[in-house]
């Protein structure tokens, strides 16, 4: 192992869904932790707070540098401009910057979104897979909708130029963690809700379009992702490296829904329909022929990473939270429901 026994670690925007378990894990390991955040909710016990706005990081430069961090983890880095500002502030004031990135940097995601032409990308995606050539992967309307959930996302959101700024600095070492679709208690996107809601409502049929049913994407339970972040931040072997973080294997949408339903002891039927016979509210945009399945072999090999929470337990905990936490008013688009249309589609199949 090549990590320091006790470190000072600054978390920027680290008081949310992913940041709180990271902070708890770092404190458990004996590190001194500070969280730079807006103060809309209290930080975890044992964590120092520095109040400020990530969009105006320079205005709080003296306060964050005064903490004298050995490592800075930025949870809400949105653009190349923000990344350059981050590196300028902490150059000479910290030993390393860890950036949380996304699997959306890969060309495969650009193909799926219809932004890139040409052949499909091979999966699983590795850290060496081709990145998107087209920047800014989300249409303005979609970005505005997502900003209801991720208020830190800027109009020029794109992790690719941000990664470049962090990894190519000549003086300050960087580490990039490309995160999957993260689920678990507190998930702001309520990823389990479409299945959990239908099971709770006593539905006997859950419909998938045939294009989406086999589509494979990377996932990660929030506590397991937090363990990977804490490991990469405290292990010096991660300096200068890029890592995918995700569970393996990557399951298809239908297989994943089956796991959730089985954990809830549901004995209904999953119905796979042609797209033209699937209710419109269940159709997802994009090219589902391009899978996003990813490999996390590098972080497992180089840093000895392994998930501390088993898959069955992760699913159980997430279901328990989801039962009592439906999407808030205004976020119904996360899990659209039209049971009348679904019943009609099921009946037409017969």
**Major sheet:** 7 strands, parallel
User: Going across the major beta sheet, what is the strand order?
Assistant: 3-2-1-4-5-6-10
Number of E-state strands: 11
CATH superfamily membership: NAD(P)-binding Rossmann-like Domain
Shape: globular
CATH fold type: Rossmann fold
Mean pLDDT, rounded to whole units?
95
Oligomer: single chain
CATH top level assignment: Alpha Beta
**C-alpha Rg (nearest Å):** 21 Å
Give me the CATH architecture, please. Answer: 3-Layer(aba) Sandwich
Order of helices and strands: EHEEHEHEHHHEEHEEHEHEHHH
Task: Produce a short descriptive summary.
The chain is α/β, with parallel strands linked by helices.
Question: How would you explain this protein's 3D organization?
Answer:
- It is a single chain.
- Helix 3 (80-90) packs parallel to helix 6.
- By secondary structure, the chain is α/β, with parallel strands linked by helices.
- The N and C termini lie far apart (60 Å).
- It is globular and about 70 Å long.
- 32% of the residues lie in helices and 15% in strands.
- The strands form three sheets. The chain has a seven-stranded parallel β-sheet with strand order 3-2-1-4-5-6-10, sandwiched between helices. A two-stranded parallel sheet has the order 7-9.
- 40% of the residues are buried.
- It has a single domain, classed as 3-Layer(aba) Sandwich (Rossmann fold), CATH 3.40.50.
- Strand 1, helix 1 (19-28) and strand 2 form a beta-alpha-beta unit.
- The chain contains twelve helices and eleven strands.
- The longest helix has 13 residues, at 222-234.
